Amino acid sequence: MLQTYAERLLANTLEDLVRRGTLDVTLPDGRRLAFGDGTLPRAAIRFTDTRAVLALLMDPDLRLGELFMDQRLVVDEGSIYDVLELLLRDADAVRPGVMVRVLDAMRMSIRRFLQNNRPGRARANVAHHYDLDDRLYSLFLDEQRQYSCAYFEHPGQDLESAQRAKQRHIAAKLLVEPGHRVLDIGCGWGGLTRYLVEVAGAGHATGITLSEEQLKGARELAARTAHPQAYDYRLEDYRATPGRFDRVVSVGMFEHVGVGYHDAFFRKCHELLTDDGVMLLHFIGNSDVPDFNNPWIEKYIFPGGHIPSLSEFTPAIERSGLVVTDIEVLRLHYASTLRIWRERFLARRAEAVALYDERFARMWEYYLSMSETAFRYQDIAIFQVQLARRQESVPLTRDYVGEREARLREAEARAVLPGLTPSGT
Hints:
- The protein has helices at about 1-15, 50-60, 60-70, 80-90, 100-110, 110-115, 120-130, 135, 160-175, 190-200, 210-220, 260-270, 295-300, 310-320, 335-345, 350-355, 360-375, 400-410; strands spanning about 20-25, 30-35, 40-45, 75, 180-185, 205-210, 230-235, 245-250, 275-285, 325-330, 380-390.
- By secondary structure, it is an alpha/beta fold.
- Strand 8 (about 245-250), helix 12 and strand 9 form a beta-alpha-beta unit.
- Helix 15 (about 335-345) runs antiparallel to helix 17 (about 360-375).
- The radius of gyration is 23 Å and the shape is globular.
- It starts with a helix and ends in a 13-residue tail after the last helix.
- This is Cyclopropane-fatty-acyl-phospholipid synthase family protein.
């Protein structure tokens, strides 16, 4: 009877979710169900046991990824991306079941505990993801190892030029001048700091990270630039960084701060900026009301992570003494970035299996696929927030952004930016 109830509940749920396209489902006893209107995209999945059906119904946010990783939910036609697209693109119109709503309320209540990113825990959380075998990232990133949203200036733009456009856009908003001292909080492999020195003309760049692998790569590449003495990379928590800087930038790091540490973060940024300093904060944000971190992402990919809403982080900015001088929302740019990453990863999937195993490769395919569908069909976007101590530190119109981008584009032709090619060589 429990099996019959579970199958009926599954059928009702999928009938509500899958309205366009086609999803075929094979139950553990071999019976087949079909959902959708018969059009494309088309995918077919198969459950290997009844408990897998029950697990999915009770906690879809966590269990869908786990079932795919463990091959208890098998994709027989199409890809896991196709399955997620079918499930998510009309999901906003469907009210979750009682069990899911109860779980959501519970997760919302404990999110501060999960995001208790004190220095020691923050370091462990970073190591979980960013200190994986460095060769993994060479499978899908651009040669500068930009592990953040690219900026697509036109349809069909390739990843390398779109990532360069992102660096150019950020440098223009930072208003970098010759001799400026720049701090990059969460510098990754150092691609942005190298751009700010070698192209934008900054006099010195300090990059801080909690990843030993990224620190090693950043130092190696800085040594091959025309100005190796202009870089200082450190394994350092932002809370421990001393000094003051003309420009502060942070790309893809604020998501790891945690909702309980927003005040500490922005107070520290205020302390680090000179009186006429400018900061650019680029991060994944939630365009809807505050929410909890996806439980599958929390468990397997980014422990301690959080995608903040505007209403969550702007009060902390106000309390810090910083002034918001500009906010730009980059819609769908990350969906395009993730599509290229996913395609590159799948083209070299066998190498990921060789580095780890099949389950790991499925985990990363699910991570890239789920992230892409979230940016494409849910309320997730990139926020670029420009901050200053004084409102007059930034021009009163936005004309300067395009003007500076044009000058930076010319400077790029003269600069040499050593990078790690996608093959990792």
